[in-house]
Fold:
Amino acid sequence: MTKLILAAAALFLTPALHAQFKVLAPANTYGLYAAKEFPSFTGGTTFSFGAASLHLKLYQGYVKNVNALQQRFKELEDEGKADTAEYAGLKRRFGWEFNGMRLHELYFAQFGAAPLGASSDLRQALAAQYGTFEAWQKAYLALTQARGIGWAALVYDRPARRFHNVWINEHDAGVPAGTEVLLVTDLFEHAFLPDFQLEKARYVQAAWAALNWPVIEKRFAGK
Ligand SMILES: [Fe+2]
Structure:
């Protein structure tokens, strides 16, 4: 029996298993996020470098706040203060900060000016639902001109195999639960004022022309 226990212990302590354990273990207590780089956005021609850099800095603020909130939640939970007004208030804010981070990541990553294939699955699926791809595009672009700040997004309800063009108010209101965001257009003024002033339609057209469709197709494919 002792031999069996020692053999099991030796097996557990092998470098391979240790390595596996490290991979499976969380990186840290809070699961902190790291701000990403988006060279196809900052190095593209749609926006001036200054405007793109400022936008990236704004995004980095969301990442920082998501991390700060997670740390504060852990502290309050450890102190037995998860029933306080502070905890409840910060919990209400978390989705706003998180979506501010994630929606910007989706948005920045979809720049790169690469076309959608004529026979791509995404094109065909949109055409099947909307009649034609162009009909969907017309409806999406019309939505981008809605008044107010937020995001226009194409989301996919995978279980129902159905697309929706949605308006996301601020960052956190209007995201249908369980859907996957395939395409987003940032419609906060900071996204277009520096380079396009109040010409929101011209901004949307320029951003549309710079879309990297293979990135969006991968999202549709669930990759
Ligand atoms: Fe933004």
Observations:
- The first helix runs from residue 2 to 12.
- Residues 32 and 67 are 5 Å apart (CA to CA).
- Residues 1-27 have pLDDT under 50 and may be disordered.
- The beta strands are 150-157, 162-169, 180-186.
